[in-house]
Amino acid sequence: MTPYLGTGRAGLWVRPANLHYRSVAYTRVGDLLLGLTALALLRGRVQELGGKRYSDARVNDLRRILDHWGEPALQRDANWQPAAAADGYAVWAQSYDDEANPLIELDQATLAPLIARHASGAALDAACGTGRWSKFLAERGFAVIGVDESPEMLERATSKLPSVDFRRADVRSLPVGSESLDLVVCSLALTHLPELDNVMAEFARVLRPGGAAIVSNIHHLSQPLGGSAEVVLPDGRLVRLPLSLFLPSDYVNAAVNAGFTIRVCIEACWPDAGQQYGGPTAQEWCAEAAHVAYTSTPGLIALELVKPVGHTAHGAGV
Ligand SMILES: C[S@@+](CC[C@H](N)C(=O)[O-])C[C@H]1O[C@@H](n2cnc3c(N)ncnc32)[C@H](O)[C@@H]1O
Predict the structure, then answer these.
(1) Pocket lined around ligand 1, Cβ cut-off 6 Å
(2) Which of 63, 117, 120, 185 is least enclosed, having the fewest CB within 10 Å?
(3) Architecture of 19-25+77-290+298-306 per CATH?
């Protein structure tokens, strides 16, 4: 039953977006394969994928996986303890720029044209990480401030982009003056926050009237498909970074509550070519199902938000 929390501004029916925030997570390779195959079976009900031949093939995939359920490759599992995002990024910073990451590719392809149509000015790269968008903005003539809470990610960013003004801070309490920026970019970080109202209010505070915030995050429908940040810490602990499952309506409501108007909302699906989805075990046991499951699912949500002229910022100024 959906709980009635009764806290929405309009007394709306809401569900806890951060249901899994801070819980121990169990993952097993065989579960992912069964889930991908079942999802692909369901997609056959609404997409033209091959009729009965396609459905029978998916049922055969399920049967084959269950017939071999005891195999070590399918039983490979893990319990992921909750950890602060900063603990995970302290480790991840070492390899972040070197690993192929399809989510970053999707983010790059989706956000670049949105950012590129803005005239240069003062920009903030919020949760800048190793400075991917700081670099893009600086190359387009923006005066860039990059903010992140992870010293290790900032160290990487600073070594690559010495001309950018990087500052260590939480995106919900920005060390930036009110109404001082033309553009805020915040990519692939919001899932680590427990809710969106505070960060949206902070973005509205630092933007000039007429300024824009371009935000992106992994799409909640892709989070069960392997879209969670998991890291092995130096002491051997397996940890999952905070993971909120925000719905599109969560972004819309938080943005509107902060006074933004929504110019663009994109739910970008995983590309249909050139990818081997689900990892090597999925490729061995259910490659077609994995392909259908991923390419039918949005990987990224991106919004461009505009602070209307005449809007008065609320929240703490500096
Ligand atoms: C997946 S990385 C994305 C980095 C960069 N935006 C990009 O797209 O390449 C997420 C970043 O968010 C940062 N982060 C997470 N929670 C944060 C918070 N509350 N305040 C500031 N930074 C935060 C992490 O330290 C990390 O660098």
Answers:
(1) 85, 89, 127-129, 132-133, 148-150, 153, 170-171, 187-189, 192-193
(2) 117
(3) 3-Layer(aba) Sandwich (3.40)
